[in-house]
Amino acid sequence: MTDMESEEIEVVEARAEEREKVRPVAPEKARPVASESAPQQLLVGIDLGTCRTVIMSSQGGKGLIRSVVGYAKDIISQRVVGEKPLFGEDALAKRNFLDLCSPLADGVIREASERDYIAATQLLEHVVGLVRGGSDAQVSGIIGVPARASMMNKELLLGIAQKIMSTALVVSEPFMVAYALGKLSDCIVVDIGGGTIDICGMKGELPSAEDQVTIFKAGDYIDERLAAAITRRYPTAQVTKSVACKIKEAHAFVGEPVTPVRVTLRAEGKPVEFDVTRELRMVCESIVPDIIEQLQTLIQRFDPEVQETTLQNIILAGGGSRIAGLDTMIAEHLRDYGRVKVTCVDDPDYIGAAGALKLARDVPANQWRHIGVMFGGQ
Description:
The protein is α+β, with helices and mostly antiparallel strands. 38% of the residues lie in helices and 24% in strands. The protein contains 13 helices and 19 strands. It has a 6-stranded mixed sheet with strand order 3-2-1-9-10-19, with helices on both faces. A 5-stranded mixed sheet has the order 13-12-11-17-18, sandwiched between helices. Strands 5-4-6 form a 3-stranded antiparallel sheet. Helix 12 links the parallel strand 17 and strand 18 (342-344).
């Protein structure tokens, strides 16, 4: 064998070894994952919700849209809305021309439908594009999922994210809220979303499965029950789930009403005012028993010495935290356990994404796999 051939073999072997190693890369070829100062690198925090999807980036961009994707119904519709899908409020505004798809059921991607899988991919791509600003920056980020999402759900989401991002990690949504607030010990987060209510006990470490609960009676459940209740009382009223959702978002409350809730609905095509106070109170209060039951269970799993402190650190987040009187009602139901303090977060729309982004900034990407399920990284 010649000297030249020996050298070529050594070079090939050396390159093979390098591919097997996890080693620093020369600066000019570096592709760091979790450094916001690195060129062509963008960190994001994403709260992927049944009702709304929220994103925040390390460069200050942020976006919030309804988790809806719309497709033209036919060739005539295409001439009006174009061939590309529409998202969020744009899709809802042109609903007459579109087949609407809400791909996130109960806060996770529907597994049985290829259409939902495609819609979820397009939705995530659109949301990332809101903060990418047309650049070709690599995107790495943390995505929130329901507290007890299955491994299959998480892997399905990561499969979609892998088409759009260079690195992604999924963590539980209530944990993201706790991280945003710096409440990592002796507290319980109740995250009330559209598809699920996620409850998480924080004990100074990553929450275990037994410290987290998912309830499948949340915002969508309230909307459906409200529409049905109004229809039962007022058979001529034309009320859809979408109309019920708007009523809920504007007037939701529990406990004694401060003022009657009167709304204008269509009845046989004409605008008519209806009193829906009783119906709205009933459906909003319908989610309370499950919340109380799970809080009672989680409180008992804390060390007895910190249970009193924990009872004074119950945090409501998510869109459902806006239900007037909910914090007071929960505290009242727990009064047998001692002094209870329930507080609502200041910005329920963005706090989950803010916590995810903060976590992405604080923890190097090569340590993300110690926090949750991920792909990519070094």
